Amino acid sequence: MTRQARLLLAAIPAAFIGYLFVYPVTRILLLGLGEADLGELVDTRIGSVAWFTLWQAALSTALTLLVAAPLTWAISRFEFPGRRLAQAAVVVPFVLPTVVVGTAFAALDVRGSVWAILVAHVFYNIAVVVRTVGGMWSSLDTRIEDAARTLGAGPWRTLWHVTLPTLRPAITAAAAIVFLFCFTSFGVVLILGGRGNATLEVEIYEQAVTFFDLPLAALLAVIQLVGVSAALAWYSRSQERGSRGLDLGSQETIRRRPEGVLAWVIGAIVLGTLGLQALPLGALVVRGLGWFGDLAVRDPVVGVPLESIPRSLGFAGTAMVVAVVVGMMAAVVVSGRGSRFARWFDTALMLPLGTSAVTVGFGFLVALDRPIDLRGTIWLVPLAHALVAVPFVVRSAVPLLRSIRPEMMEAAAMLGASPGRAWRAVALPIVSRAAALGAGFAFVVSLGEFGATSFIARPSSVTVPVTIFRLLGRPGPANFGRAMALAVVLALLTALVVAVIDRLGEVGRF
């Protein structure tokens, strides 16, 4: 592809990211640094919120690493019946919308507790550790550990001095990802934490939506951007160190089958961890039973909860189309090998993924009044969802597009195929699969998006996650039961889409 063609193809994605992300974030920075009262930073409330955000994220990360370690060891080093099923089951909580996770723990009647937030974070982040650390652990050459034991090192000494130092890059990368997710956690904290346990995400929402203090909300968003940037830098550095690590080979090490007491230990670890993960989901289903019929009943405030389902599906379909068009154009540019422009462009496309969804939604609220005021239109919701989904489309499509080698097209031409026929026979099946995979990810991301939507949703654009949150915020067992039932519906829709994605490509790769 020529440089001119690459620049022309990158124009639409660049304009999309520029108007819907760079411009709103810039307006937030100007509003936060220019109009907010910096003296409010020393306010006890703001200081305690910032401190709570930091320490709950750090503690959630430590607890996640601790809880996930035994399961990661069992799945990575041993072959046992149901291993692949366990590896897939551990990903289920991670792909669920955060509103569903928060509602599932609300079904256990643990709202208003710091421990509820911590446990919920561990609940859906275990998959990050199992996939990130487990992928490297399963590739370690067991002969290194065998040599250490031959030289007299016991199991614990071998683990401490041989295995953990080798796994350090993967552990650091997993910790950085989990910390970022917990630092920017919104739906879980908003549902489970209450006013006394607010993070920066929740406080931005409260200051902008409840108290209408936009300058202070912008200042808090700036503080959060700094924290997110630090977490991303930490992750980038850990990835760089990991790339200079051992050459682990391309195939997994042959696992051994546990026997005797070890088999019972492995079984207890796997069943115990997955059983604890299934507990809140089971409580959600039980509490939602009997209330599905009430989803069609009109509420004077929430409306008809059932109507939010086709609305969410419509938004997800629209966001999917926009994200696939923009993302595939960007993926073609990024898939070019050896291009410095492609690398910089790829980095720019990933910025929305590393930025809080609440910050994105707040930016829409502050900035998108010019040149056309989009804030009161129904198009704002699918555009916000598409912005969040574009990085997923790019990341899923680029590896497939890079598999199209020029030699394949040349071979088709040598066999007499015209350029158009060669493209249809060789490239089109791969491009179509990449687009379908990206479309699936975009759809599921839109279906569960809550952070940005909570800012910009209007009565005519309320989605399923927003409806669940509003039902939980109203008193009475009927509202609580309908929230549970609607969360079950959202979980089932998400599981259905993820199953389709699983048919197109491997789910849960980090």
Short description:
By secondary structure, the protein is mainly alpha-helical. The protein contains 21 helices and no strands.
Description:
There is one protein chain. This protein is mostly helical. The chain has 2 domains: 43-288, MetI-like fold; 291-510, MetI-like fold. It contains 21 helices and no strands. The chain has helices at 3-34, 44-77, 83-89, 92-95, 98-106, 114-137, 142-150, 155-183, 187-192, 200-210, 214-243, 261-288, 308-334, 340-350, 357-367, 380-402, 406-414, 419-448, 453-456, 464-472, 477-504. The longest helix is centred in the N-terminal third of the chain and has 34 residues, at 44-77.
List keywords for this structure.
disordered C terminus; MetI-like fold; 510 residues; mainly alpha; 2 domains
SSE diagram, text form:
Layout lengths: L2 H32 L9 H34 L5 H7 L2 H4 L2 H9 L7 H24 L4 H9 L4 H29 L3 H6 L7 H11 L3 H30 L17 H28 L19 H27 L5 H11 L6 H11 L12 H23 L3 H9 L4 H30 L4 H4 L7 H9 L4 H28 L6
Helix pairs in contact: 1-11, 1-13, 1-15, 2-6, 2-8, 2-12, 5-12, 5-21, 6-8, 7-8, 8-11, 10-11, 12-21, 13-14, 13-16, 13-18, 16-18, 17-18, 18-21, 20-21
